[in-house]
Amino acid sequence: MTSSRGAGPIFMCVGMATLAFIVLPLPFIILYSFSPNAYAVISSQGFTLKWFVSFFENDRFMAATAASLQIAAITTVASLLLAIPTAVMAVRHRFVGRELLLTLISAPLVVPGVIVGTAALGFVSQTGIGPGFWPLTVAMIALALPLTMRPLIANLSGLDPDLENAARNLGASPFSAFMRITLPQLAPGLVAGGTFAFVEAMDNFAIAAFLSNITFTTLPVESYSYIRDIDDPTVAAMATLLILFSVFVVFLIERLLGLDKFLDLG
């Protein structure tokens, strides 16, 4: 008992140190995005918005942003459509091969992204499909599916199936009972799973780097290419916009769902 109590403050300190390590660079990125000096985080010359203008005027950045948003949107919708019936089958039914199915679905979580990207590139090359928008989208769906399923399974496991059975006893069809009784209660899991899928598809670099080409690229890959060749705060400006977008998403989740439910399902 004593060792357990003593470990509490240690874990708290480790957690706070890890959080600080992750969060502390963010203010410097934001300051750098407003710096008129391309080689200084804080400049005596004041602040500027020219790097944000540079980002929006860069055709390659705009094309990469559009591609990333399209892939993220398709991945989110497709992952949810696949995850809902799979989660229902996994939670509500027992069948031979159930554990194997869940293991196969969760496999992308334990395989490094570089290996998944290499395997995907080998597949599209051998089949003649080639890298591009749809191969990357399919790879993102496969990667995001287990992330989408986890909160849905957790959400569904906490629901009372008798409510749906009562609706069926009152004359509702199985589909109608699910849509009217169960699906509204899955809102927290849908929001959490959809958020995870969208973020993963939008932010993934390891797989996108293998499935991009000269005419098609995503925002993370294009950002890497830019900072490799050019040293200015344009990418910092892009990162600042993504930080603001993330803050907006967190605020929206808090208003619509509540962060406590979101974090419990995650």
From TrEMBL:
Domain of life: Bacteria
InterPro entries reported in the protein's UniProt record: MetI-like, MetI-like_sf
Location within or outside the cell: Cell inner membrane; Cell membrane
Gene Ontology biological process terms in this record: transmembrane transport
One of the record's GO cellular component terms: plasma membrane
Pfam families: BPD_transp_1 (PF00528)
CDD domains, A to Z: TM_PBP2
Transmembrane segments: 12-34, 61-88, 100-121, 133-156, 205-227, 234-253
Membrane topology reported for the UniProt record: Multi-pass membrane protein
Family: Belongs to the binding-protein-dependent transport system permease family.
Designated name of the protein: Putative spermidine/putrescine transport system permease protein
Lineage of origin: Bacteria, Pseudomonadati, Pseudomonadota, Alphaproteobacteria, Hyphomicrobiales
